[in-house]
Design brief:
Blueprint (H helix, E strand, L loop, with lengths): L2 E5 L5 H13 L4 E4 L10 E4 L5 H29 L5 H7 L1 H23 L2
Antiparallel strand pairs: 1-3, 2-3
Helix pairs in contact: 3-4
């Protein structure tokens, strides 16, 4: 029976391609499903043979550990170059966007708490 191996929802195409290549190189028997037209299905990579699951999971875990390390190094390099934006830098660059998002969050919070405050 097929086993869900990797969800593709919200995954960048570059990462999905790397996962596909990893599974292909590992010789795993997989197939892919899409979300469908109305996005009711699961976009994922499925493993056909359950017996391959421990090996496939180990390969994916190792890949994700390498990816996490690579992303942390990239973030550290960007911070060292001063390219990483803090909240105050974002506020200076896009004041209207930050203010609009803050007001939207305040409105949601107010509407959520209003029934409890009026008791």
């Amino acid at each position: 029976m097929a086993v869900l191996l990797f969800r593709l929802g919200g995954v960048p195409e570059e990462e999905a391609a790397e996962v596909r290549q990893l599974l292909d190189e590992g010789g795993f028997d997989v197939y892919e499903t899409s979300e469908g037209r109305w996005k009711l299905s699961v976009a994922a990579i499925w493993l056909r043979d359950e017996e391959q699951l421990p090996e496939a999971r180990a390969a994916l875990d190792a890949y994700q550990a390498r990816l996490s390390e690579r992303m942390q190094q990239d973030l550290a390099e960007r911070e060292a170059r001063g390219e990483s934006l803090s909240l105050w830098q974002r506020l200076r660059e896009r004041p209207l966007q930050v203010i609009a998002l803050t007001l939207a969050a305040a409105a949601v919070l107010t509407l959520s708490l209003l029934p409890f405050v009026s008791l």
